[in-house]
Amino acid sequence: MSDLLLVNPLFLHDDPVEQRLMTPYFPLGLLYLAAAAREAGYSVALFDGMFARGGDGAFAAALAREQPRIVGISALATVREAALRLAGLADQYGATVIAGGADPTGRPESYLRHKVNGRRPVRLVVIGEGEETLLELLRLLIGGMAVAERTGVAGLAFLDSAGEMIQTPARRHCSDLDSLPLPARDLIDVEAYRHAWRRRHGFFSLSLITSRGCPYGCTWCQKSVFGRSFRVRSPQKVAEEMSLIKQQYHPDQIRIIDDVLGIDRRWARAWREAVLAQDAVLPFECLSRVDLVDEELICLLRDAGCRRIAFGAESGSQKVLDAMDKGTTVEQIRQAAALCRAHGIETYFYLMVGYPGEEWADLLKTVDLLRQTRPDAFSSTIAYPLPGTRFYEEVAHRLLDSPDWDYTAENRLLFERGFSTRFYRWVQRWLYQEWKAARLGHGDQHESPLRRLRSRAALWRAQAMVRILRHDPSGRGA
Questions:
Q1: CATH class, 203-383 region
Q2: Cys bridge to 395: 30, 354, 415, 441, which one at CB 3.0-4.6 A?
Q3: What is the spatial distance between Cα 125 and Cα 115, in angstroms, rounded to a whole number?
Q4: At the topology level of CATH, where does 4-167 sit?
Q5: pTM
Q6: Where are the domains of the chain?
Q7: What distance in Å separates the CA atoms of residue 177 and residue 237, rounded to the nearest whole number?
Q8: Alpha helix locations (H) across 330-359?
């Protein structure tokens, strides 16, 4: 019997986007929660849906095997449906269900009011960071917490006896990240992840975090868990974890999942020294900002093992970047790409299309940016308003249907704008083909004459479809 069963509700075989990408990472947040609960003396089990066979049946088997008193489910919007389905199963089993993570934090009432077979399975929602709140809940729940005691737990949401949602005061963020135990990676089937990575990509990658929070104010970013704060682990502790990972798991690379790496230059210098001193260098990829990178930072990251930096470029239009409150310039994007290329570091761009106010001329500027900078890889998304963001507030009066439960991995059109969803889907294909043509033209990629001809035809088709759909707002013209 376990005191707590933590649940990752992402079933890889049910998610076509994740299957296409095949870049599965451990549920690091859950592993931190597990480590904190174990350190406090509780028995903890983990159900990781990533490679689970049998879907809901596998979870039911885990419930029967572990017999948990409490089930904690962490959810993003992409797995909301699965999370609520598993919550219903856990409730039927008789466990107390707690939801947490970015999506429940952003819309706690939706989780608390959701019904399965006439019952509301989610009894409590943890708002924001979960370690301290979870430990307090475990102590109270296992001790037979009275309903009245819930109001004394910071960072919590629940329904009272009258069915009204109560949200307690926010809990302070953990200020000393070094006080947290290392994530309980022993609860994970590491070999399943290693096999999936190597089968698709030829290498194995796992994740690590060095800081929490992001102090920047992009309008579309949902900072519901870590907030607009910035708290960093000591460089020595991070280097120690890298050394441990290197010796114990032997990954080919790691992904540092901080929102932004490189904010604190003094920290970066000390980290580089600690990594080298402990022989902890591992090839890694990370996320940073184009207005942070310069010659010194690039060299510091490269010496510590950096092989790729992902940037939130978002758009080639300064007007769009300013509307997003991005705080960066198009020229900084170009400079960052050139600097990385000069030092042998790959670049990855995140782009967003369909942001309010974006016009045809802005899309052309994004195409130009891709063709000029030629990042090693990129991805694009259609602007999607998440609850709790300024973007959401700006378009709330223009939302269509019921966005609360209408998420899809393809980011369906959720608010009124000038172009159709189909138009933006073709814009995404157009961007890809323009990028590919630019890299072929500069010798960044090598393909046979036949493949070059096919690429050219694909570009012409994407250009034609975008032009047609641009003049057909309904998106039905082609």
A1: alpha beta
A2: 415
A3: 15
A4: Rossmann fold (3.40.50)
A5: 0.91
A6: 4-167, 203-383, 418-478
A7: 10
A8: 330-342
